[in-house]
Write a structure and sequence with these properties.
The structure is a homodimer. Chain A is mostly helical. Helices cover 63% and strands 9% of the residues of chain A. Chain A is built from seven helices and four strands, in the order H-E-H-H-E-E-H-E-H-H-H. In chain A, helix 1 crosses helix 4, helix 2 packs across helix 3 and helix 5 packs antiparallel against helix 6. The longest helix of chain A has 33 residues. The radius of gyration of chain A is 22 Å and the shape is elongated. The N and C termini of chain A lie far apart (68 Å). At the A-B interface, helix 1, helix 4, strand 4, helix 5 and helix 6 of A face helix 1, helix 4, strand 4, helix 5 and helix 6 of B. Strand 4 of chain A pairs antiparallel with strand 4 of chain B, so a sheet runs across the interface. Chain A binds a DNA duplex through helix 2 and helix 3.
DNA sequence: ACAGGCATGTAAATAGTTACATGATTCG
DNA sequence: CGAATCATGTAACTATTTACATGCCTGT
């Protein structure tokens, strides 16, 4: 049985403790979103498919009058998750409109490539800030669970963004050296 | 008129010289594919839409009996491309199944996270090699056109992959230090 | 009373890939 | 001659996002 990567995101998210679709979405938004996003439109139908396949089990756990279904992973689900984790990854995709614009920046008057690099840099700086906001929670969680991987991935994301922002800065300087703001020295 | 980023890829590709859909696809595969892919299923219909909108112009230029339509950018097309280049980028998406697996690696027995990092590292090393194969062609092209951006982006991609491969290596060592191959001191 | 968060879900639209069909040309 | 490449295109499928609908609960 072939599952989509998004199915494994869900499996992974319920593997430590049972969660509702809503909680899974919230968790994804705080964690994997940066390298693997998922929307309600995927999560709820996928939960039903996984339940039908016996990889998770839903249980009604209403809070007051508000209905709520939490899903727990089954033995078969744990097996499927591990089996996936052991297969080499297949998808590695980047869709970066900034790099795309930079690639075509030759269609613009000389100095304007610099503006693209500045936008890209600002974006990564902003991303770093948002990732740093997550940090305390992730650190606390590592202390509680002893699982080093989520924090490792978070630090990796921060470092990567720092590399990217730095690269933008270096390329900006290089462009400015090559074409010194128009009439210079 | 709102165009998709893929439309701008096409506009960018025909902005320097007229090209056929087939040539555009081949170019994309050698260049932007690494941060913005496009398939025939997108390119041919999009070329017709762009032609209908007056942003490109198709001309029949058969080679022998083999029919062939090359598309040239129009003044309006150049304007649309420049206008897009000046807008700040919107999309920045990464879909990295390796990072996803690493994130959930806690579901695996201790030592196995290392295997994921090794797979990721191998992938980036391989990517570096493929990018280096493109290098000579890109350098030669920069000499011919004087456009520094495509090569800049290519070097950026290589450096990024090098950073990534190095990070994998460092994280691998860290895991091995933390859990020295089972039963230690 | 109302805003905001909790909770589940679906319909419609958009995006994108894959596979196929067709046929010419070139090179070994 | 056959394989690879040039060349155009479409149909079917899969994935994914967005927007909406519904309704309860908590805090101000």
């Amino acid at each position: 049985m072939e599952l989509s990567p998004t199915a494994y995101v869900i499996l992974g998210m319920v593997s430590r403790e049972p969660r509702s679709g809503y909680e899974i979405k919230a968790l994804v938004d705080r964690t994997t979103r940066f390298f693997w996003a998922a929307s309600y439109g995927q999560i709820y139908p996928e939960l039903k498919r996984l339940a039908a396949a016996g990889l998770v089990e839903g249980r009604d756990e209403p809070r007051g009058e508000r209905r709520r279904t939490v899903y727990a992973i089954t033995a078969a689900g744990t097996e499927a998750l591990r089996e996936w984790l052991r297969r080499p990854p297949e998808t590695y995709e980047v869709r970066d409109e900034g790099l795309l614009k930079l690639f075509f920046a030759g269609a613009l008057p000389a100095a304007e490539g610099v503006a693209i690099l500045r936008d890209m840099r600002a974006h990564h700086l902003d991303l770093i800030e948002r990732l740093r906001e997550i940090e305390p929670k992730a650190e606390e969680k590592e202390d509680r669970t002893g699982d080093p991987y989520p924090l490792m991935v978070l630090y990796g994301g921060i470092e990567l963004s720092e590399w990217f922002a730095d690269w933008c800065e270096r390329m900006e300087s290089r462009l400015l050296e090559a074409a010194p703001t128009e009439r210079s020295n």
